[in-house]
Amino acid sequence: MRLVLLGPPGAGKGTQAVVLSEKLKIPHISTGDILREAVRASSDIGKKAKSYMDKGELVPDNIVTQIVVERLAKDDALKGFILDGYPRTKSQAESLSSALGLRGIKIDRALYLKTSVSTIIARLSGRRICSKCNAIYHTKNSPPKKAGVCDKCASGLYQRDDDKEGPIEKRLEVYNKTEGEVVNFYKDEGILKEFSGDMDVQELYRSLIIAFKEEALL
Ligand code: AMP
């Protein structure tokens, strides 16, 4: 199955992608994770992306699309994938569609997690990430067993700079500008499914699985 997850920062895309990836046995591909890794490694792409990411702005389409197209060509993504954080603009959605079209494949569903501003702020401000395995925690909703330490790999947790108050506002402003065009792109393709990102993790996961079963995708 080839899926894209749409929704604002804090909608729960990353969290759902991890569990869906295990259930469906297809890779979770997060452009944010790939870019943060590139910044940490100080690669050419990382150097180009850093200033945009620090400001909560979008990294230029050509850079992100190149990353995605290369990643999707790897063996583990041949049977399917879950894209998280891409596409974020109509132009990215079109590029994705053309790149997949060249391989005779297409996105099966775009899952849109529509989420209220109060949920977004509460989730992002409490979000903590593992510096090694990218596991996601929340100081209140899903704290690690030992404060500041990842349950899975025992590495330290950190708060993303862009999950702090100023950058959150900027990211939401940026997101709101392009949300409609991406959602409409997939609506027009007839593959958009909308869910409430305000649901808790388990509830949302159950709704996604029920929807897949109803459509005989599982
Ligand atoms: P995320 O982890 O998805 O919130 O992404 C973190 C940051 O990476 C964003 O604020 C952007 O600066 C950049 N980024 C991630 N995905 C994209 C994308 N599809 N297009 C442009 N910039 C992106």
Q: Number of helical segments?
A: 8
CATH architectural grouping: 3-Layer(aba) Sandwich
CATH topology name: Rossmann fold
- What count of domains describes the coordinates? 1
CATH class: Alpha Beta
The ordered H/E elements are EHEHHHEHEHEEEHEH
Biggest pleated-sheet summary? 5 strands, parallel
Shape: globular
Rounded to the nearest angstrom, the distance between the terminal CA atoms is: 9 Å
How helix-rich are the residues, as a percent range?
40-55%
Bound molecules: adenosine monophosphate
Alpha-beta classification:
alpha/beta
In what order do the strands lie side by side in the largest sheet?
A: 2-3-1-4-8
| Rounded average pLDDT | 96
What features would you highlight for this structure?
218 residues; 8 strands; three-stranded antiparallel beta sheet; alpha/beta; five-stranded parallel beta sheet; Rossmann fold; binds adenosine monophosphate
Structure write-up:
By secondary structure, this protein is of the alpha/beta class. It is 50% helix and 15% strand. The protein is globular. The termini are close together.
Structure, briefly:
The protein has about 220 residues and is of the alpha/beta class. The protein is about 50% helix and about 15% strand.
Question: What layout of secondary structure does this protein have?
Answer:
Layout: E1 2-6, H1 13-24, E2 28-30, H2 31-41, H3 44-55, H4 61-72, E3 81-84, H5 90-102, E4 109-114, H6 117-126, E5 127-130, E6 136-138, E7 157-158, H7 165-189, E8 192-196, H8 201-214
Parallel strand pairs: 1-3, 1-4, 2-3, 4-8
Antiparallel strand pairs: 5-6, 5-7
